[in-house]
Design brief:
single chain; 401 residues; alpha/beta; Rossmann fold; Argininosuccinate synthetase, chain A, domain 2; 3 domains; 5-stranded antiparallel β-sheet; 44% helix; binds arginine; Argininosuccinate synthase; ATP-binding; Arginosuc_synth
């Protein structure tokens, strides 16, 4: 029987050429797999038709937008995950959902190998292949750009020679990856890290310098998940989409960073994640009133480690699963409303309320009626400083003072 290979297919030039390129190099039949994670653009049906026209024997397409929002974006929100303190893991969280569908398609169509369009320099090859190894240990991986010398020039020549139904002239100087959680733009002019991004690279956000009138929004959460916006019930996907629109119109969520790739390279990336950043900001402020102090402090460390694991392609790892269980436990009382103003590139919280809040007005107030017994603070401070005081006395003795 002819060997079968499933290919992660975007509908663009490189993966369209990869269909025939892989076929010629390996003699295998290629099944194209297109997964919609909210990247916009063409319909799944158009992508399916192009895959078949480019020589795929079958095409598997899936609308995974709700799955992505519920099972990948929401855990990222519960973790307030920002890699290196900035990046909300836009591309990193989309790879595992695509991997799930690739493995499913491989089983459905009896494929032995999974192919993807990544280069050998980035994180995404790692995320795909570590994911595939974990979910389908018997499956092999192949990356035509990395393993079969499929360069841009060769891709254009191949598409023209074979008359593939794909545009080869459109010149985009940037490499872009986008989904409902955000958008990532790199390469070209941005590789000089002193160059400021030009206006044309943005798509999810408007220029924050000239914002429309401030937009006040109330986001309601239930156990860490947004469930209503301005009192109207929403699904996680709808919450992200609505905030992408509203926060995007105010220029919220533009990020310009040089980040540490897993493969040891520092790289410049521009992100736009208006919905994600507005949601993370609101969620964090709700946690501030609903999570106990020690749990909250520890959770910040867990979140950082979680973000590193996910960035590094360990979505399906045991440690990530254990950290998820901790994070999930912290979300039990993260329910309530956050009011925030979106304006001029910022999402600023100005009100919070929760039935499960730990904020106690009677303890906090400086007005009369205060229930906090201030006289107890004195003894507490004495004991709190004791250990350092004893050590300092020892230090002074030891230095002969
Ligand atoms: N640097 C980011 C990451 O590794 C985004 C990579 C996405 N690719 C792109 N073409 N911008 O998650």
């Amino acid at each position: 029987m002819t060997e079968r290979i499933v290919l992660a297919y975007s509908g663009g030039l490189d993966t369209s050429v990869a269909i025939g390129w892989i076929g010629e190099a390996t003699g295998a039949e290629v099944i194209a797999v297109a997964v919609d994670v909210g990247q916009g653009g063409e319909s799944l049906e158009d992508i399916r038709q192009r895959a078949l026209a480019c020589g795929a024997v079958e095409a598997y397409v899936a609308d995974a937008r709700d799955e992505f929002a519920n099972e990948y974006a929401m855990p990222t929100l519960k973790a307030n995950a920002l890699y290196q303190g900035h990046y909300p893991l836009v591309s990193a969280i989309s790879r595992p959902v695509i991997v799930k569908h690739l493995v499913k398609a491989a089983r459905e169509f009896g494929a032995t190998t999974v192919a993807h369009g990544c280069t050998g320099k980035g994180n995404d090859q790692v995320r795909f292949e570590v994911g595939i190894q974990t979910l389908g240990p018997d499956l092999k991986c192949i990356a035509p750009v990395r393993d079969l010398a499929l360069t841009r020039d060769k891709a254009i020549a191949f598409a023209e020679a074979k008359g593939l139904p794909i545009e080869t002239t459109k010149k985009n100087p940037y490499s872009i990856d986008q989904n409902v959680w955000g958008r990532a733009v790199e390469t070209g002019y941005l590789e000089d890290i002193w160059n400021a991004p030009t206006k044309d690279i943005y798509d999810y956000t408007a220029t924050p310098e000239f914002p429309p009138a401030p937009d006040e929004v109330i986001i309601s959460f239930l156990q860490g998940v947004p469930v209503a916006i301005d009192g109207v019930k929403v699904s996680p996907l709808q919450a992200i989409q609505e905030l992408n629109r509203r926060a995007g119109a105010q220029g919220v969520g533009r990020i310009d960073v040089v980040e540490d790739r897993l493969v040891g390279i520092k790289s410049r990336e521009i992100y736009e994640a208006p919905g994600a950043m507005a949601l993370i900001t609101a969620h964090k402020h709700l946690e501030d009133i609903t999570i106990e102090r020690e749990q909250a402090r520890f959770k910040a460390n867990v979140s950082q480690r979680w973000a590193e694991l996910v960035y590094d392609g360990q979505w399906f790892s045991p440690l990530k699963r254990s950290l998820d269980a901790f994070i999930e436990d912290t979300q039990q009382y993260v329910s309530g409303d956050i009011r925030m103003t979106l304006h001029g590139g910022q999402a600023i919280v100005n009100g919070r309320r929760s039935e499960t809040s730990l904020y106690d007005f009677d303890l906090a107030t400086y007005d009369t009626g205060d229930t906090f017994d201030q006289s107890q603070a004195k003894g507490f401070i004495e004991l709190w400083g004791m250990s350092s005081k004893v050590a300092s006395q020892r230090d002074q003795r030891a230095s002969g003072l």
